[in-house]
């Protein structure tokens, strides 16, 4: 099972920020692949919904100092 979640990311001020968020998301159990676009201020996550929720992903991003707002 695999779903895709898209986020608007608030608070990135340099390209390394994008890498930090990407690494943080990719380390989470249930995340298969996360990519962050610094210029567009967006992130896209392929994940297993039986292992992780969108809210848990947002929380993990908030913990390192950014805001991840799920797109609808
Ligand atoms: Mo450089 Mo981006 O310290 O926070 S990683 S501005």
TrEMBL record:
<comment type="function">
    <text>Involved in copper export.</text>
</comment>
<protein>
    <recommendedName>
        <fullName>Copper-exporting P-type ATPase</fullName>
    </recommendedName>
</protein>
<comment type="similarity">
    <text>Belongs to the cation transport ATPase (P-type) (TC 3.A.3) family. Type IB subfamily.</text>
</comment>
<feature type="domain" description="HMA">
    <location>
        <begin position="3"/>
        <end position="69"/>
    </location>
</feature>
């Amino acid at each position: 099972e695999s779903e895709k979640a898209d986020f608007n990311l608030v608070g990135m001020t340099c390209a390394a920020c994008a890498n930090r968020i990407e690494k943080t998301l990719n380390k989470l159990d249930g995340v298969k692949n996360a990519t962050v676009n610094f210029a567009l201020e967006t992130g896209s996550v392929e994940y297993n919904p039986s292992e992780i929720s969108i809210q848990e992903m947002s929380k993990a991003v908030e913990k390192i100092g950014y805001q991840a707002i799920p797109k609808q």
